[in-house]
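dumping this here so i dont lose it
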C-alpha cells in the first residue's frame, strides 16, 4: 500500500508524549483515533483520566479519541501510520524495542531532529540501521518551522515531509494537512534532516549573542553564515542545497533563532548571560536537542572534512573551553575570504 486507510477505526500511533508528540496527537485526533505512547505509566494513566498531559502542553485538553499507553505493543497494534517524536539520542533504543510490533506496511514519520553522537547518523539512517529493509522505503521525515504550542493552538503552520519514495511523503501530506497545518512533499530526506538538526546549533549561537548584547547586525550575520554551514554539510552528505532555502532550512532556522518558544535559543540566551550549562538544562525541564547535536555535528564534520566554524565555537562554549565573548572574538578574527567560497 502507498496510502493510509480512511477507516476511522484504524489508529495513528505517536511514539513520544513530549510537547511535539502531544501536539501531533491532538492534530491527528481530528480524523482518527490516536494511541499516544508515553514512557511513564503514570503519565499515560493521567492522560487517560484527565485528558491532559501532566508535564507538556498542560493547558490543552486532549481529545477523548487519544488513548495513552506505556506499552509499545498496545500503542502499535494495527497502526498504519507511526509518528516518532522521541529525543534523538534515545531513538535507537525506543525503535529497537518497538520494531517487533511495527506492521510491515506501516508508514513511519520521524519528527526527530538531531545527529546520533556515536555514529554520526541522521535520524532516518538510525531508523534504517535498526529496522528491517521492508520498512526502509516507508520512512518519512517531517521538519519545518513548527513550535508545538502553536500547532496545538491551531495557528497556521507549514512543514515539509520527505521520503526517498515520494509517494509515501504524499500520503502523509494528505493525511496530516488541514486548514491550519499544511505539508509540502519532498524526496530530499538528507537535506530536510540536516536543516532540522543544525538549525538548533545556530539558534544556540544566536541566543548567546543576543544574551550578551542583542546586536541585530550580529544576529543576521550568524543566521546567514549559519545557513551556509548547514548547506555545506548537507551538500557533502549528498543533499540538494536548494532544500536549505525552504521550510526545513531557512524557515526553521529563522523561527528557532528568533522565536522565544525555542528551547535552543533559550539555552544560548542563558549561556550569553553567564549561566552554567548544567543549571540551564535543569531549569529548562525539556530536551534542547541542539546541545547534543552540536557535539555530534562537529564530530561528523571533522570526520568527513567539512568546516563548521560557528558550530565548532558553540561546541567549545558548551564544553567550557571558551566563554561566549571569546567565541565571538575568535569568529570575527578568522581569516578573510570570499563569500562565494562554499568550502569555507
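and the seq i came up w/
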Amino acid at each position: 500500500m502507498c496510502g493510509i486507510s480512511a477507516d476511522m477505526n484504524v489508529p495513528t500511533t505517536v511514539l513520544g508524549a513530549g510537547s511535539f508528540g502531544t501536539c501531533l496527537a491532538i492534530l491527528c485526533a481530528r480524523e482518527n483515533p490516536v494511541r499516544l505512547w508515553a514512557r511513564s505509566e503514570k503519565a499515560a494513566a493521567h492522560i487517560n483520566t484527565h485528558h491532559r498531559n501532566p508535564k507538556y502542553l498542560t493547558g490543552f485538553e486532549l481529545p477523548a479519541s487519544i488513548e495513552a499507553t506505556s506499552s509499545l505493543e498496545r500503542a502499535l497494534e494495527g497502526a498504519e501510520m507511526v509518528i516518532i517524536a522521541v529525543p534523538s539520542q534515545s531513538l535507537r533504543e525506543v525503535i529497537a524495542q518497538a520494531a517487533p510490533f511495527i506492521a510491515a506496511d506501516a508508514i513511519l514519520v520521524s519528527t526527530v531532529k538531531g545527529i546520533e553522537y556515536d555514529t554520526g547518523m541522521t535520524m532516518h539512517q538510525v531508523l534504517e540501521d535498526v529496522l528491517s529493509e521492508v520498512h526502509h522505503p516507508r520512512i518519512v521525515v517531517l521538519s519545518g518551522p513548527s513550535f508545538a504550542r502553536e500547532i496545538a493552538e491551531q495557528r497556521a503552520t507549514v512543514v515539509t515531509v520527505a521520503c526517498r519514495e515520494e509517494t509515501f511523503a504524499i500520503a502523509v501530506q494528505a493525511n496530516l494537512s488541514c486548514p491550519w497545518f499544511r505539508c509540502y512533499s519532498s524526496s530530499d530526506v538528507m537535506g530536510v534532516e540536516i536543516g532540522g538538526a543544525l538549525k538548533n546549533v545556530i539558534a544556540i549561537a544566536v541566543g548567546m549573542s543576543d544574551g550578551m548584547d542583542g546586536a541585530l547586525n550580529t544576529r543576521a550575520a550568524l543566521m546567514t553564515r549559519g545557513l551556509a554551514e548547514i548547506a555545506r554539510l548537507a551538500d557533502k552528505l549528498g543533499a540538494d542545497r536548494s532544500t536549505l532555502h525552504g521550510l526545513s532550512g531557512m524557515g526553521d532556522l529563522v523561527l528557532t533563532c528568533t522565536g522565544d518558544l525555542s528551547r535552543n535559543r533559550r539555552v544560548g540566551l542563558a549561556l550569553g548571560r553567564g549561566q552554567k550549562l548544567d543549571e540551564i538544562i535543569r531549569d529548562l525541564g525539556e530536551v534542547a536537542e541542539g546541545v547534543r547535536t552540536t557535539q555530534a555535528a562537529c564530530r561528523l564534520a571533522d570526520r568527513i572534512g567539512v568546516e563548521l566554524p560557528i558550530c565548532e565555537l558553540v561546541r567549545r562554549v558548551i564544553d567550557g573551553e571558551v566563554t561566549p565573548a571569546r567565541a565571538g572574538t575568535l569568529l570575527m578574527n578568522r581569516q578573510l575570504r570570499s563569500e562565494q567560497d562554499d568550502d569555507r
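The two ends are 45 Å apart (CA to CA).
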